[in-house]
Design brief:
Layout (H helix, E strand, L loop, with lengths): L1 E6 L11 H4 L4 H14 L3 E6 L3 H14 L2 E5 L8 H10 L3 E5 L21 E4 L4 H17 L1
Parallel strand pairs: 1-2, 1-3, 3-4, 4-5
Helix pairs in contact: 2-5, 3-4
The structure holds 1,3,4-trihydroxy-5-OXO-cyclohexanecarboxylic acid.
The site of 1,3,4-trihydroxy-5-OXO-cyclohexanecarboxylic acid has 10 residues, from loops.
Length: 146
């Protein structure tokens, strides 16, 4: 099983970006933890970070050819992108939405996710663990469907 892991805008700056909110793990640390976990789960991941909405849409559109699911932290596009939401809805792959911070504890504009209605579920607020929890949940979900 292969999972596309999408990281949205500004997540390339993790480790130095507002560490009091997002923690000290770098994006590479997160990807390494996901690679290790995927091996334990007998799965594979392909991580991709982009600051560009269209590149994320392109990656979602291409995902069905090679992947069985999508783990996504759309970052700020969570709160703005109908295009990304429509792409996820269009490909029909199960997706799990993750956030490092608890978006419901923060500014009002972060309380709404355009992505949430088209994913299996959302994990928010556990720092880097949101990703590993999300990967476990997604792999379990996909296996339970077969
Ligand atoms: C985030 C939360 C978003 O509101 C924010 O724009 C991000 C990161 C998180 O992982 O906590 O860039 O998705």
């Amino acid at each position: 099983m292969s999972i596309l892991v999408l990281h949205g805008p500004n997540l390339n700056l993790l480790g130095q970006r507002e560490p009091e909110i997002y923690g000290s793990s770098t994006l590479n640390d997160i990807d390494q933890a996901l690679i290790q976990l995927s091996a334990e789960l007998d799965a594979k991941i392909q991580p991709l970070q982009s600051n560009h909405e269209g590149s994320l849409v392109d990656a979602v559109q291409s995902a069905a050819k090679q992947h069985q699911g999508i783990l996504i932290n759309a970052a700020a596009y969570t709160h703005t992108s109908v295009a990304l939401r429509d792409a996820i809805a269009s490909v029909g792959l199960p997706a799990v939405e993750v956030h490092l911070s608890n978006i419901y504890k923060r500014e009002d504009f972060r309380h709404h996710s355009y992505i949430a209605p088209v994913v299996v579920g959302q994990i928010s607020g556990f720092g880097a663990d949101s990703y590993t929890l999300g990967l476990r949940a997604l792999v379990n979900h996909i296996r339970s469907q077969h």
